[in-house]
Amino acid sequence: MPKSNSALYRSCNLSDIQLSHRYRLLVETVEDYAIFMLDAGGNVTSWNPGAERAKGYPPEEIIGRHFSVFYTPDDLATDKPARLLAAAALRGRVEDEGWRVRKDGSRFWANVIITAVHDENGILLGFAKITRDLSERQRLGEFESAAAASALVHQARENEQKRIARELHDDLGQQITALKMALARHETELLQHVSEEATGLLRSVREIADQMDTMAKSLRRVAADLRPPVLDDLGLEAALEWMTEAFEQRYSVPVRCDIQALPLRLNDLAAISLYRVAQEALTNVARHARANEVSVTLSADERHCHLRIHDDGVGLAEGSTLRGDAFGLLGMRERILQLGGVLSVQSTPGDGVTIAAHVPLARILVEATP
Ligand SMILES: Nc1ncnc2c1ncn2[C@@H]1O[C@H](COP(=O)(O)OP(=O)(O)OP(=O)(O)O)[C@@H](O)[C@H]1O
Ligand SMILES: [Mg+2]
User: What InterPro entries does this protein's entry cite (predicted)?
Assistant: First the structure.
């Protein structure tokens, strides 16, 4: 049988009146928890400011009403309020987590503890109920699982891109090379057999060979965009240099690549994530910025690695980053968050965009092997 409240009070040296006064003050001060009493039948008999804040009822509207008003129709259908009271009466205390309903009909995720209150003779007087709003914590939990799911998607996509890049390079790339060699052989043979008048035919063979060169170049570029071999072979610093040179050649916009950090021994996830951030930022520059100059800077201090991509273009138009179908900036943010870092996007209209990622080294370096 649980100890009665007055038995608990008596274990201190304060009088019952002093104690109940302090107890009331305590309960009336608490705003983070809904603390209230129910009579043995489940009707509300007291109500603290925390209860008003969590459930929206002022005391005069709820005292005297049955506590089942806080439960959802589903819970009422299974008689949950009565079952909880019966369990608390039997075991002394019961704990529950689930949806509860506010006065305005909205729901919140609550942790609820119901404790049976008995008098000295063990007669049930009622119940003390403490409710805590866990909506924030639940939202955080949902956010964490969404972030974990998104990390898995990124990882799966990287693996798939790596596989396709290898297939493109090893299979299709080799076939184009073989075709080109065969064509060169035929060209030499044709030269020996055709007359001067048929040189037009030779010219078209040469044109086909040139087209095949262009095709091989495009294929290498597509494969490298999917997964640059230089990243796996030489690391992020070399891959950034390669990326900026390729950007400069392709879009005729000068890019300064400034590697200020000593070579960092980055783990795979960090290398590909930082690489993808720079790649997406440069793609955005090409698509949206109309820039004259771009800079990519990689640096590190004792505790952080910093990646910054700056352009001097038109800047972010108002509301442009809020488009529902734009995933570039969102993806960058997710990748950096996954590394325990932060990503900032700064711009004033007409004054270019600066993307800056700051990532803790502790999370991104390959652990030193003893
Ligand atoms: N460097 C930049 N200069 C000017 N505007 C930019 C720049 N980067 C992004 N923006 C603006 O921000 C918007 C959102 O960028 P984000 O990369 O998220 O999406 P997107 O490039 O439009 O589409 P995608 O999902 O293919 O990346 C862009 O549509 C563009 O209006
Ligand atoms: Mg984009």
Answer: HATPase_C_sf, HATPase_dom, His_kinase_dom, PAS, PAS-assoc_C, PAS-like_dom_sf, Sensor_HK_TwoCompSys, Sig_transdc_His_kin_sub3_dim/P
State whether the beta carbon of 198 lies less than 6 angstroms from ligand 1.
no
Q: Which amino acid is at 293?
A: E
What sign has the CA pseudo-torsion 263, 267, 272, 277?
Answer: negative
Phi, psi of 143 (to 5 degrees): -60, -45
Ligand 1 site, residue 314, Cβ cutoff 6 A: yes
Confidence of residue 189 (pLDDT cuts 50, 70, 90): confident
Tens digits of residue pLDDT in 94-105: 999 999 999 999
Question: Which SS3 state, helix, strand or coil, does residue 158 take?
Answer: helix
Judge whether residue 209 has pLDDT over 80.
yes
Give, as one character, the DSSP assignment of residue 68.
Answer: G
Q: What pLDDT shows up at residue 89?
A: 94
Q: How far is the CA of 294 from the centre of ligand 2 (A)?
A: 16
Q: What type of residue is 223?
A: A
Q: Spell out the CATH class of 231-370.
A: alpha beta
Express each pLDDT in 118-147 by its tens digit: 988 889 999 999 998 888 777 777 777 888
pLDDT for residue 192: 80
Query: Is 321 in contact with 313 (CB distance < 8 Å)?
Result: no
Residues 6 or more apart whose Cβ sits within 8 Å of residue 95: 111, 112, 113, 114
- Dist CA 257 CA 242 (whole Å): 9
The CATH class, in words, for 5-133 is alpha beta
The ranges assigned to domains in the chain are 5-133, 136-227, 231-370
In 3D space, the residue among 288, 367, 366 whose CA is nearest the CA of residue 321 turns out to be 288
Q: Is 347 in the pocket of ligand 1 (CB under 6 A)?
A: no
